[in-house]
Amino acid sequence: MLIAKSQISCQQPYERMVHEIVSTPVLEVISDLTGIKAKVQKLVEDLRSDSLETLRTSTAELRLLTKIDANNWTVIADYGAISLLVNLLNSTDTKIQENAVTALVNLSIDNNCKTIIVQANAIEPLIHVLQTGSPEAKENSAATLGSLSVVDDNQVNIGRSGAIGPLVDLLKDGTPRGKRDAATALFNLSLLSENKPKIVEAGSIKHLVKLMDPATGMVEKAVTVLANLASTDEGRIEIVREGGIALLVDTIELGSARAKEYAAAALLWLCGITSRYCIMAIQEGAIPPLVALSQSGTARAKEKARALLTCFSRNKLTSH
């Protein structure tokens, strides 16, 4: 039985918030716009320096300016800092690279800055940081890619630039924050059909299934990606192979409202294709939590739960 795609629709890309991990040197907050412009102009000049110490200081101060006031983003962009920060992503100095990528992730919240970052050819340097940087730099690189990937065209460019494999590596081996940022980026990228097979082929599903363990604190992040990947043949096969059906049923029963919605969406993709997966879901105890979800979930969750129960009924499986 085929299920209409409208019954399994996904939500919008994740946006992100300003993302700081470690403390930075104290910098006096300059409220006067003229003062800010003068400060940024000097820092941009310093970004062209050959001195590592000057670059460490200037990138650290720009990093903090991007954090303390969103009004600074336009000034920083207008003075040409973004392209210089992108160039410094290739720095072999750990602190310079960390400061540059953290400044960029904060700037990337702004839509205009998103455009400038991409126009500065940042995607490949960000992937370089994702592959070779410190744990903090990798986290912020993934977060920047996640922020950029809320834009449809960027989903295409990032997916075609080789970012998916390193993001899956971070999903596997990263810090808890790195795994969350990788999952966010993969979710946004998985909204584009051409990226879904690439994400599956990169081995993401076994890691996503592991992150469905409530002890990881990442059930919601993981299941949103799985729901998108379940729309592909390859994704469904891998989800079942990795034992995902039982975890989807558990999430429908015990997860957050958002997690329940996406778990039901993923299960609907599986069960709408073959009765064999319906039987597996029922054997895992899917019917009681689906009945409960059909009555008390979000509007989308209710729709998906009812579609699943109808699927079971039409396959004459509700008493299996």
Describe this structure in words.
Pathway: Protein modification; protein ubiquitination. It catalyses: S-ubiquitinyl-[E2 ubiquitin-conjugating enzyme]-L-cysteine + [acceptor protein]-L-lysine = [E2 ubiquitin-conjugating enzyme]-L-cysteine + N(6)-ubiquitinyl-[acceptor protein]-L-lysine. InterPro entries: ARM-like (IPR011989), ARM-type_fold (IPR016024), ARM_PUB (IPR058678), Armadillo (IPR000225). Its EC number is 2.3.2.27. GO terms for molecular function: ubiquitin protein ligase activity. The chain is an all-alpha fold. It folds into 2 domains: 1-11 and 33-202, Leucine-rich Repeat Variant (Alpha Horseshoe), CATH 1.25.10.10; 204-315, Leucine-rich Repeat Variant, CATH 1.25.10. 69% of the residues lie in helices and 0% in strands. It contains 20 helices and no strands. The longest helix has 17 residues, at 52-68. The protein is elongated, with a radius of gyration of 22 Å. The model is unreliable at 1-10 and 20-30 (pLDDT under 50).
- Work out the radius of gyration: 22 Å
CATH class of the largest domain reads Mainly Alpha
Total DSSP helices: 20
Assign the CATH topology of the largest domain. Leucine-rich Repeat Variant
CATH superfamily of the largest domain: Leucine-rich Repeat Variant
The fraction of residues in strands falls at under 5%
Secondary-structure-derived class: mainly alpha
**CATH architecture descriptor text of the largest domain:** Alpha Horseshoe
Q: In which range does the helix fraction lie? A: 55-70%
Mean pLDDT: 90
- Largest beta-sheet characterization: none
CA(first)-CA(last) distance = 17 Å
Low-confidence stretches: 1-10, 20-30
The tally of beta strands, per DSSP, is 0
Shape: elongated
Q: Could you state the order of secondary-structure elements as H and E? A: HHHHHHHHHHHHHHHHHHHH
Total individual domains: 2
